[in-house]
Amino acid sequence: MTNNEFVIQGQPSFETEPPRDKVETLLATKHYALKTAGFWVRFWAFLLDSLIISAIVGILINPIFYLMDWSLSETVWYAPISIISAIIYYGYFVLMTKFLGQTLGKMACGLRVVSLKHDKLTWSDVLFRDWIGRFISNIFMPLYIFVAILPDNQGLHDFFAETTVVHEKMYVEKKEAPKALPIQEKVVEPEKLEQTIEEKMVD
User: Fold this and answer.
1) Which of 6, 97, 102, 91 is closest to 45 using CA atoms?
2) How many whole angstroms separate alpha carbon 97 and alpha carbon 170?
3) Are residues 196 and 188 in contact, defined by beta-carbon separation less than 8 angstroms?
4) Tens of pLDDT along 85-138?
5) Pick the residue with more confidence: 177 or 12?
């Protein structure tokens, strides 16, 4: 699934006039695929998700820490606020992607996560993508630039899980290479076959 210049909105129509012969049928074969999402639209979706997660932590977690007089300013990874924030962050991406195929940010941008090897996202796909892969990408933030480089606009976390992100209602045209025509075997007529046998016997 790669992006081409030809893009259409909505579901493509496959109603075309029948071609005149088999050669035209092969050459006119078209395949439509959902358009993969590029770097910037995914960036805005991720930014929206980050704001939503921050709001969840601020509304649900921070008041508890204030009441318990626990520190909210510690930045080490083993601090209680860091651990709880990480659980909410990764839990949000894992659960939303597994059960809905998209986060709230992706919904707003019309995006969806799809598997390149399965019809539906499996738990292993989601855990590799939104837990292990995203954890590594968050440590080395420049790795997100792979979305603009790798085939199918995959981020590093997509590459681990063999997934990608697509537009829900945008299709691109993929022209598949025409299949080779079958090779016809040469059939030897009985009379010519007898002549060939006699020639070999004479030799």
Assistant:
1) 102
2) 20
3) yes
4) 999 999 999 999 999 999 999 999 999 999 999 889 999 999 999 999 999 988
5) 12
Please, how many CA atoms are within 13 Å of residue 102, restricted to the half-sphere of its CB? 17
Sorted by sequence, the CB contacts under 8 Å of residue 58 that are 6+ apart come out as none
pLDDT one-digit tens code per residue, 134-175: 999 888 888 888 999 888 899 989 988 999 999 998 988 776
CA separation for the pair 60, 41 (Å, rounded):
29
Strands 163-174 and 111-115 turn out to be antiparallel
